[in-house]
Amino acid sequence: MPPLGVPVRICHLPLAVLLALLALACPALAQVAIVFYSASGGEGIESVSGTIVEKTERHLKVETEDGRIISIPQKNVYHIIGNSPAALDKSDPDLLNSLSTRGRRSRETGSTHHLGIKGGMNIANMSVDPQDLEEENSLRSYAIGAWYGVPLNRRLTIQTEAIYSVKGDSESGDGYTATTRMGYIDVPVLAKIGFLHGSPARPSLFLGPSVGVNVSANSKFEGGGSDMDLDVKEDVRTFDFGLVIGGGVDFAVGEHTYGVDLRYSRGLTNVAGEGANGDARNHVFAVMGSMRLQ
To answer: How far apart are alpha carbons 182 and 240 in whole angstroms?
Structure first.
């Protein structure tokens, strides 16, 4: 019987264990892999095969067979199959379904939830019954806030926003100008449907209810040698329920996603306080830009 020793023990090890030991001894042998990751913007699943040339806490870099270097944020990586690309049949429906489920679960647990900031310009007006909605002399104002989106699937996202929005109206004529400005904290809950996933520009449509809380109201009159500025918050109802509808486009630029949308908000509540003559409702067209932070 030959003397016991390391060479003899290694020879009697199972092949799988031997390969694992070799991979640990020669890390380069374990660098060839297929990496599955969430697409830019968190929509869909993409994959790349090649040699992992750099791995840090923030990025994973893969060199493909044609010499390209693909840099993937570590937060977007959710599955790596190593050693041999040939060992993976990417046309296997069971495997792809498993990876798709893994990616969807990853999104549902928060790794691809959307969080960002947004702001833009309002074109505000008010309809006053028995008068008609005035098309001229609208109030130009602004809106600014933040949003949080939860993707339910590749197309549908539930997006909640918290926006400070200035609404009201402005009228001019016969040498005078009357302006009403009302500040609201609006909280719309939108169902957002996206299209063209995987493309650099992804259009979307959205619709949903909104509730606004009035935090300020001011009326100003200028003309005829007089200048009056009045606080009229007590004459405005606290809550304004409405409906928001619109569409936009999101752009993936590097690791960030930017967007622009056009929306119309229609107030469903009479915001005029008790004792006011007539019925006043807010109407706002807004152009808003956004930036995704996470």
So the answer is: 11
165/182 same-domain check: yes
Run of H or E residues at 259: strand 256-267
Q: What is the CATH number of the domain that holds 121?
A: 2.40.160.20
Residue 293 Cα distances to 32, 71, 112, angstroms: 32, 19, 11
* pLDDT winner (highest mean) among 78-82, 99-103, 117-121, 194-198: 117-121
- C-alpha separations of 157 from 39, 113, 192, 207, 235 in Å: 16, 10, 5, 11, 38
Report the chain's mean pLDDT, rounded to a whole number: 77
Q: CA-to-CA distance for 18 and 6, rounded, in angstroms?
A: 13
Same domain, yes or no: 146 and 246: yes
- Dist CA 5 CA 286 (whole Å): 79
Element (H, E) at 2: none
Q: How confident is the model over 152-200, as pLDDT tens digits?
A: 887 899 999 999 999 998 888 777 888 889 999 999 999 999 988 767 8
Q: Which residues contact 234 (CB under 8 A, 6 or more apart)?
A: 273
Measured distance CA(21)–CA(25) in Å, rounded: 6
Instruction: Please write the tens of the pLDDT for every residue from 40-81.
Output: 655 566 778 888 888 887 778 888 877 788 888 877 776 777
Give yes or no: residues 102 and 121 share one domain: no
CB of 266 closer than 8 Å to CB of 285 = no
What's the whole-model pTM score?
A: 0.62
